[in-house]
């Protein structure tokens, strides 16, 4: 990993620094490079020159480190990821749900679905990054697995592997 993330990583406690470094190193191995976003806040977006897609973002929110990522290509993920999709949907009062008709998907919209116990289903566009509510060492391996699957989706011609929903 290069020194691009030093401002971010040097602001973290030792435990968070270990977690965020491990995830960043994995993203680098996949071919994604961190670039500081042109904002007043510290934000780093991981993008691949090969895929022209972003996969991951590091930032601060309320003084705490935050990770946002894409993982819609995965068919299965644990409740923390499922709940994170719900939290993003609810954070914006259900306003940014459904397909935006932006043309980025080839055919059927790609993204996340959250289904409530009453059966109501909401779609969240896959072009959006999902903020994880909390990151601990316990979920790092799942994060890496989801990032790998998303990257494989980006680099594959076979788009049938993606978790596409008819909403």
Give the overall silhouette: globular
**Helix-and-strand structural type:** alpha+beta
Could you estimate the helical fraction of the residues in percent?
25-40%
Low-confidence stretches: 163-167
Task: Report the end-to-end length measured between terminal Cα atoms.
Answer: 40 Å
Number of strands: 7
Sequence of secondary-structure elements: HHEEEEHEEEH
Percentage of residues in DSSP E strands: 15-25%
User: If strands are numbered along the chain, what order do they take across the biggest sheet?
Assistant: 1-2-3-4-7
Q: Total number of helical segments? A: 4
Quaternary structure classification: single chain
Mean pLDDT: 88
Largest sheet: 5 strands, antiparallel
Q: Give the count of structural domains.
A: 1
List descriptors.
167 residues; 5-stranded antiparallel beta sheet; alpha+beta; disordered C terminus; 7 strands; two-stranded antiparallel ribbon; 4 helices
Overview of this protein structure:
The structure is a single chain. The protein is of the alpha+beta class. Helix content is 30%, strand content 22%. It has one domain (3-161). The protein contains four helices and seven strands. A hairpin with a 5-residue loop joins strand 2 (43-48) and strand 3. Helix 2 packs parallel to helix 4. The chain is globular and about 45 Å long.
